[in-house]
């Protein structure tokens, strides 16, 4: 299950994300570093599926103009 | 969900298309539908122009501070609070305001997708149903069609696919997917930062030999450089098997993107190639 999840994220990073960037013509489009998908991979690896997904979801939700504190590492 | 998407994105776009179509017809230009596709794409590109520009600018700034960011991470390895603090400082120094976040992407993607689905639908309409289908959707009477449009563009059927036209037109039709791929390549090439940054990263990876977890993001950058060649080839292939009207849309979209990119950030990775010559 965990591996499947990580594989999905890898697929997203290598295929969908790259395509999106090429369509929109931007190279780096993240406010966070590491990127959300990278962060998701790490936290799922370290803290398991549930905590990992939860933390990643919160992080993605913070990626919008109304979250004004521009934290970068997002921990 | 489908209904919602139609009401919010598809139908307004079809109405804009009809406005453009009537304008083009009024000018008595030939190939009104083809020119309407070009016109509609340009109109939509202007609508999302501010979002794209904001994103390009943010991306450029992120690129310039990326090396600082990674050295900073190495320096304070393990001390995430410190890294956060220093990153904030770095952002302030360089005037990076990543406040927009994912919003520009989230706004642009459905519009680009809707444009694609509208045109895929439009070019596939049979001449005998065009008038009835379109008149169902338009908001105002003056936008209504009275007769079917000319579905060709400089002799090419907008609804035909290069793959299917090989027999009747011959290999010359391959110029359509080739042109589409080349334009996409130019666009992708411009998006990559000036060559030296990428080269440094590649050398870095080569030096270490093995790629550990910490370098995963560097590896991703190298992968992206590969994607710069793969993606245009893919688009070229799509163009081969999709209706020509969609290639017309995509190429207009890309050319607009190239011009916008040039105005906002300059030549990018293309610069080193042009200078060499």
What's the short story on this structure?
The complex is a heterodimer of chains A (75) and B (277). Chain A is mainly alpha-helical.
Give the radius of gyration of chain A: 13 Å
* Overall body shape of chain B: elongated
Order of helices and strands of chain B: HHHHHHEEHHHHHH
Continuous helix count of chain A: 2
Number of self-contained structural domains of chain A: 1
Q: Helix and strand succession of chain A? A: HH
Structural class of chain B: mainly alpha
**Terminal Cα span of chain B:** 52 Å
Strand content of chain B: under 5%
Q: What portion of the residues of chain A fall into strands of 2 or more residues?
A: under 5%
Please describe the topology of this protein.
The complex is a heterodimer of chains A (75) and B (277).
Chain A: H1 2-24, H2 36-61
Helix pairs in contact in A: 1-2
Chain B: H1 2-26, H2 32-47, H3 49-75, H4 80-93, H5 103-124, H6 127-137, E1 152-153, E2 156-157, H7 162-169, H8 175-191, H9 195-208, H10 216-241, H11 244-264, H12 270-276
Antiparallel strand pairs in B: 1-2
Q: How would you characterize the overall build of this protein?
A:
The complex is a heterodimer of chains A (75) and B (277). Chain A contains 2 helices and no strands. Chain A is flat. Chain A has helices at 2-24, 36-61. The two termini of chain A are 24 Å apart. Chain A is an all-alpha fold and 75 residues long. Chain A has one domain. Chain B is elongated, with a radius of gyration of 23 Å. Chain B has helices at 2-26, 32-47, 49-75, 80-93, 103-124, 127-137, 162-169, 175-191, 195-208, 216-241, 244-264, 270-276; strands at 152-153, 156-157. Chain B is built from 12 helices and 2 strands; from the N terminus they run ααααααββαααααα. In chain B, helix 1 packs across helix 5 (103-124) and helix 8 runs antiparallel to helix 10. The model of chain B is unreliable at 208-214 (pLDDT under 50). Chain B has 2 domains: 1-154, no CATH class; 160-277, no CATH class. Chain B is mainly α and 277 residues long. The chains are: A mainly alpha (75), B mainly alpha (277).
């Amino acid at each position: 299950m965990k591996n499947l999840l990580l594989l999905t994220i890898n697929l997203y990073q290598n295929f969908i994300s790259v395509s999106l960037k090429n369509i929109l013509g931007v190279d780096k489009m993240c406010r966070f570093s590491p990127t959300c998908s990278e962060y998701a991979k790490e936290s799922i690896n370290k803290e398991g599926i549930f905590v990992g997904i939860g933390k990643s979801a919160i992080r993605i939700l913070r990626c919008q103009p109304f979250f004004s504190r521009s934290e970068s590492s997002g921990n | 969900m489908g209904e919602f998407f139609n009401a919010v994105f598809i139908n307004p776009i079809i109405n804009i298309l009809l406005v453009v179509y009537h304008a083009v017809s009024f000018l008595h230009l030939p190939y009104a539908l083809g020119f309407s596709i070009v016109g509609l794409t340009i109109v939509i590109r202007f609508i999302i122009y501010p979002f794209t520009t904001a994103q390009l600018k943010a991306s450029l700034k992120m690129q310039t501070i990326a090396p600082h960011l990674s050295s900073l991470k190495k320096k304070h390895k393990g001390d995430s609070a410190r890294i956060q603090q220093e990153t904030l400082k770095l952002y302030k120094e360089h005037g990076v305001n990543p406040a927009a976040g994912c919003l520009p992407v989230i706004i642009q993607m459905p519009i680009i997708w809707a444009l694609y689905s509208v045109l895929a639908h439009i070019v596939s309409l049979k001449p005998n149903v065009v008038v009835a289908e379109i008149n169902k959707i338009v908001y105002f009477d003056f936008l209504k069609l009275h007769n079917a449009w000319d579905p060709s563009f400089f002799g090419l059927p907008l609804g035909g696919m290069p793959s299917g036209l090989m027999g009747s037109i011959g290999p010359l039709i391959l110029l359509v997917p080739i042109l589409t791929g080349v334009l996409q390549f130019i666009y992708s090439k411009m998006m990559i930062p000036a060559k030296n940054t990428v080269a440094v990263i590649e050398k870095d990876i080569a030096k270490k030999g093995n790629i550990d977890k910490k370098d995963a993001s560097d590896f991703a950058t190298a992968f992206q450089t590969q994607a710069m060649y793969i993606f245009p080839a893919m688009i070229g292939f799509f163009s081969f098997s999709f209706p020509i009207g969609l290639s017309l849309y995509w190429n207009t979209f890309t050319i607009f993107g190239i011009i916008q990119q040039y105005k906002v950030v300059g030549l990018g990775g293309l610069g080193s190639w042009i200078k060499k010559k």
